[in-house]
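TICKET: design request
STATUS: open
ATTACHED STRUCTURE:
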């Protein structure tokens, strides 16, 4: 590409990134500590650097310039000049090509080589040394895009939080083995909007699909050297660029088209995002973007020794969310995905890190204030993972209003209860009723508790009832990685078995856990494949398994057992929609009566008697009845009871008054049984869960 200019025009410091205006491209990049920044232009193959320009102006710590007469598709990168003083926190090295932090598309992949480091690997001076090799050949290049998309015909579902059911999935694994999807599209963005996927999501009754990271991420060097891959994607290379590996035709509009079609089907799209750290790792990691542009601004550094990064994330570095420009980058990124790709919400990986100040976690941290007042972001679904590995790194229930939180206490309590652990009944009641002990503050609501049995990280639901020990040998770490306390039980055999009694127990427990989940107050989250019993062969840390261990086996879904569990799950979500009391928008404490002497929530034992303090403290108590009631628009009192039996024996529940017509809605021991009218007692199978309802037409 010939250039008719030798220098850039001044351009504008706003907006950050590379912006095409129809006549040329404005480039703007932040650095508070660089002396100068060069713009490097590459040939269309990304192999040859064909031109360099100095960014001629710097306004408010933003270097900027305008290149006329160029179009989208232009490949570029930056080189930053400044002090190489690691002991002062500065790591400028113009020999290293740097990605634009605002790049909206990437060309090529990282080719791991020692030249990607700003220092000489193997030097006795370690990261205090300086490497003069050019890294451009090993670096992906940023691509100028014109990403206009007409969203005027789009209608966001805007599902109320209290009606939300989330389905967590990984883009590739969801459809890689789905034969109904054309072979070329399997495992890509294009497949997300395929009718087969939408039919399945609608059949299940989920209202939102939560995608594991789709922002551009790295394939880690240590994994590639072991023949493995970064499957989950929690190592971000570009906060604005969709991951290229999920594109069927190298078109970002594939993702927009999929989101549009999911919206048409009434399904929201939530992104799992990683703003707590970047792929550059510790101070000994490579120089790819942020480190080379302004290490001292982008990363939290040890106060009295800024050579070293603070590692509150367990990945080597932590983004410095106390810096205004770093917060701006994250907020701009979120807003871009929401407006350019139609995304409906975000789940923040290690969300606690985003609220860290010098003194620790602060729910009033600047990032939360920025998001909560933003006219775009404040209207979206915001979900925090409320922990990291730093000091005070567990803050479940302490996030500000507007945020929901992953509730791992829910997961652990429900698993422990159903595996038969003693002394869990009281804690279970708190989790069933929306975890008000954790979330009922600052006008928060039950939906703030994202309830889950499993997540991508850990055993699948089927493995929770098949394995008592992790089996992560395929990860190449001698089975040392992953959680060692999974609150799981194999019910008599480790792994698959032909024993019908064991398999019957496993199926019943899975259905009981699903019943518990969908009948609890809070926001339920399912994980893709749990609706038909997906297994990872006991691997509870399959982050590096981009293969059949992680991909959904749709042939298993097509079996009679798989179809039975799918239908059972769908019935549960339908019941949740039908009975508002199962998804009450406010916390229930047994203090408000809808009429006829019935309170909004009540707790009973199998004898039909209210639990006393001694009963709650009884470590051997395995039976629990939760009854919720509300007054309908017709003036009736409608109640739904959840009967739980975690013992080894069947238990006959005697149902408390009032005497009225009762209907069994669903029984985990009888998945094919339809709705059934019963009398005043009902036998619940071992490890069984039952939902029943009654409606009183009496004057309430």
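STATUS: resolved
RESOLUTION: sequence designed for all positions
ATTACHED SEQUENCE:
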């Amino acid at each position: 590409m010939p250039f008719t200019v030798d220098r850039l025009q001044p351009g504008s410091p706003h907006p950050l990134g590379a912006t095409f205006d129809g006549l040329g491209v404005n480039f703007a990049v932040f650095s508070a500590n660089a002396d100068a920044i060069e713009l490097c232009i590459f040939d269309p193959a990304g192999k040859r650097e064909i031109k360099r320009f100095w960014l001629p102006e710097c306004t408010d710590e933003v270097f900027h310039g305008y290149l006329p007469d160029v179009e989208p598709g232009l490949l570029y990168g930056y080189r930053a000049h400044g002090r190489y003083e690691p002991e002062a926190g500065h790591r400028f090295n113009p020999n290293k090509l740097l990605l634009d932090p605002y790049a909206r598309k990437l060309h090529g992949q990282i080719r791991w080589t020692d030249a990607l480091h700003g220092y000489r690997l193997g030097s006795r001076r370690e990261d205090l040394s300086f490497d003069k090799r050019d890294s451009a050949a090993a670096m992906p290049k940023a691509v100028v895009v014109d990403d206009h998309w007409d969203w005027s015909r789009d209608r966001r579902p805007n599902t109320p939080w209290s009606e939300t059911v989330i389905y967590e999935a990984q883009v590739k694994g969801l459809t890689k083995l789905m034969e109904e999807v054309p072979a070329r599209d399997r495992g890509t963005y294009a497949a997300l909007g395929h009718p087969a996927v939408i039919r399945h999501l609608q059949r299940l009754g989920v209202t939102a699909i939560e995608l594991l990271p789709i922002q551009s991420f790295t394939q880690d060097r240590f994994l590639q050297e072991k023949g493995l891959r970064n499957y989950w994607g929690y190592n971000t290379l570009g906060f604005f660029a969709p991951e290229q590996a999920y594109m069927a035709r190298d078109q970002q509009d594939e993702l927009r088209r999929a989101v549009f079609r999911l919206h048409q089907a009434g399904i929201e799209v939530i992104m799992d995002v990683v703003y707590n750290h970047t792929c550059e790792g510790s101070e000994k990691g490579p120089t790819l973007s942020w480190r080379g542009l302004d290490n001292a601004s982008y990363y939290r550094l040890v106060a009295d020794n800024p050579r070293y990064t603070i590692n509150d994330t367990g990945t080597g570095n932590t983004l410095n969310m106390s810096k205004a420009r770093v917060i701006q980058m994250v907020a701009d990124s979120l807003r871009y995905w929401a407006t350019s790709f139609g995304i409906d919400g975000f789940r923040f990986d290690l969300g606690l890190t985003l609220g860290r100040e010098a003194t620790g976690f602060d729910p009033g941290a600047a990032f939360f204030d920025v998001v909560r007042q933003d006219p775009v972001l404040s209207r979206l679904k915001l979900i925090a993972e409320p922990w990291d590995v730093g000091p005070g790194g567990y803050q479940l229930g302490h996030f500000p209003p507007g945020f929901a939180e992953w509730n791992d206490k829910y997961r652990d309590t429900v698993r422990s209860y159903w595996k038969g652990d003693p002394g869990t009944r009281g804690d279970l009641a708190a989790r069933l009723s929306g975890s008000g002990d954790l979330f009922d503050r600052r006008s928060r609501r039950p939906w703030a508790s994202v309830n889950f049995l499993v997540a991508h990280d850990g055993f699948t639901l089927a493995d929770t009832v098949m394995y008592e020990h992790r089996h992560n040998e395929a990860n190449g770490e001698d089975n040392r990685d992953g959680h060692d306390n999974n609150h799981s039980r194999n019910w008599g055999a480790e792994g698959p078995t032909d024993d019908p009694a064991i398999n019957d127990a496993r199926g019943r427990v899975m259905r009981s856990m699903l019943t518990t989940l969908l009948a609890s107050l809070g926001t339920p989250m399912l994980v893709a494949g749990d609706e038909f019993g997906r297994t990872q062969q006991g691997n509870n840390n399959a982050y590096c398994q981009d293969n059949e261990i992680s991909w959904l086996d749709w042939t298993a879904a097509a079996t009679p057992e798989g179809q039975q569990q799918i239908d059972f799950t769908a019935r549960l979500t339908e019941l949740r929609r039908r009975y508002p009391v199962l998804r009450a928008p406010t916390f229930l404490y047994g203090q408000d009566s809808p009429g006829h002497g019935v309170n909004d929530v009540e707790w009973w034992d199998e004898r039909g008697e209210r639990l006393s303090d001694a009963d709650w403290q009884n470590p051997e108590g395995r039976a629990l009845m939760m009854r919720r009631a509300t007054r309908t628009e017709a003036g009736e009192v409608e109640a739904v009871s959840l009967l739980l039996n975690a013992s080894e024996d069947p238990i006959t529940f005697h149902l408390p008054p009032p005497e009225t017509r009762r209907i069994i809605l669903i029984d985990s021991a009888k998945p094919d049984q339809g709705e059934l009218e019963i009398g005043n007692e009902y036998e619940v199978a071992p490890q069984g869960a039952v939902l029943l309802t009654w409606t009183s037409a009496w004057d309430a």
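CLOSING REMARK: The first strand starts at residue 17 and ends at 20. The chain is about 20% helix and 20% strand.
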